[in-house]
C-alpha cells in the first residue's frame, strides 16, 4: 500500500511532520508485515486546521448532498470488500469468516441506516415560541481501538459526515491500515478536502494532542476505560464534548427454561467472538445453581471443538489475540483463575496443542467462579469464559450488576415476561435477548465505567449535533 508512509490531510496524501515509524506485527505469525508512519502534535494541528476550514462550507451542505455522498461511500466500500477482509484478518487475526461476513455487514448496514436517519431527521423543530435547530457540533476528533477496526471507524465517520461535521481520525496504532482504507474510500467517494483527515500514531502523543486541541469540539473515543479516563481529563480544559465507549464485563444469563444445548453453545460463541476481544461479550455466564454442572459440560465440549489456526483459513474459528502484551495479560488471568480456585473445565495456560507461534490462547472455560475472583471482575479480552451459579432471578440480576462496568448483558429464555422483567433490572446500555441479529437502529453504549453517550442509530447520530434555541422566532 503506497500510502503507508503518509497521512491524509486536506484531501491529499501528505508527508508526516514526524520521522517516526512503527512496525506492524501479524498476530498469527509474530512476523513484521508493514511499517507505517507515526504522527505527532504538528500533524494533528495541520489536520485540525484543514477540518476547521472545511467545516465552514461542509456544515452548510444540504441533506440531499450528504445522502448522495453516503451512497457513494457505500459503493466505494463494496468495491473493496475482499481487500478489507484480508487486511483486517492479517492485522488482528480475525477469522476470515468473520471479517468477510459480520464485519462487512456491520459497515454496510450502518451506512444504509445512516442514510435513512438523515433522510428523515428533523434538523429544525418548533417548541412554543422557540425554533430549535440541530447543528453539527464542529470538528470531531476520533480515536478508535483495534478489536473491530474498520467497523469502529465507520461507526464514527458515518454520523459525523451525515450531520455535517468535519473530522480528524486517529485509529489504533496497531491497526492503522484500516484508517488508510477508510481514507481511500472517502477520497474516491468525493468527500470534500478537509472534511475527513487521517493521522496515524499512538495514544500518548497523537491521541493526547486530539484530546487537548482547543479547535476540536468533540472527541469520540472507543477503547479502554483507562484511556477514556485520561481523554476526559485532557479534554476537560477545553470543555469539549467527550463520548466515551469503553470496556465491559458483561453477564450472560440463562433462564431455567432455556434450551441449554443451544444457549450454552451461543454463550461460548459470544464470548469467543473476535477471538475473545469483543467489548460487549458476555464473559460471565450465569446459570441456575442446579444447572451448573450441565452448563459446564456443554461449554467445555463446545470450547474444545474450536479450531485455532491461520485466521485466513476458512476452517479456523479462533484466531490469536492481538499482540504479545495481550497474550501475556490473558495468560496471567488464566493463571489467576487457577490460583484462586476456579474450576478449569477447558483450556488453560499456554498455546493450543500443535501451535508454536502466534498469540494463540487456548479456548478456556472456568466454572464455579466466585464473585471475588479476578477473572470474574476484570475485563480479560481473550477467549476465557467464566460460569457461575445463581439462586433465583433476583440473585441473577444482582450478580450481573455486580461490576463497575455496564456495557451489555445477554439473556436467554423462553418466558418473555421473565426476560423483559429481568432486562429492566440490568444496569447496562444494551441487553441482547436470545442471541439477536444485528439491529443497526439500536443505540450502543455503556452505563457506569463503560462510558457515556451512545453510538449507532438515531441516538448515535444526535451525539454529533449541537442544539440552538432561537427564542421568539414566531
Ligand atoms: P486502548 O484504550 O488501549 O486504545 C484505544 C485507542 O486509544 C487507541 O487508538 C490508542 O492509541 C488510544 N489511546 C490510548 N491511550 C490514550 C490516551 N492517553 N489519550 C488518547 N488516546 C489514547 O484500547 P484498545 O486496547 O485499542 O481496545 C480495547 C478496549 O476497547 C477494551 O477495553 C474494549 O472493551 C474497548 N472497546 C469498547 C468498545 C465500545 O464500544 N464500548 C468497542 C470496542 C472496544
From TrEMBL:
Identify the domain of life. Bacteria
**InterPro entries (alphabetical):** Ald_DH/histidinol_DH (IPR016161), Ald_DH_C (IPR016163), Ald_DH_N (IPR016162), Aldehyde_DH_dom (IPR015590)
Aldehyde dehydrogenase domain mapped to chain residues = 13-470
Output the CDD domains linked to this UniProt entry: ALDH_CddD_SSP0762
Q: Which Pfam families match?
A: Aldedh
Q: Key word rRNA processing present in the record? A: no
Citing just one GO molecular function, the answer is: oxidoreductase activity
Q: What is this protein called?
A: Aldehyde Dehydrogenase
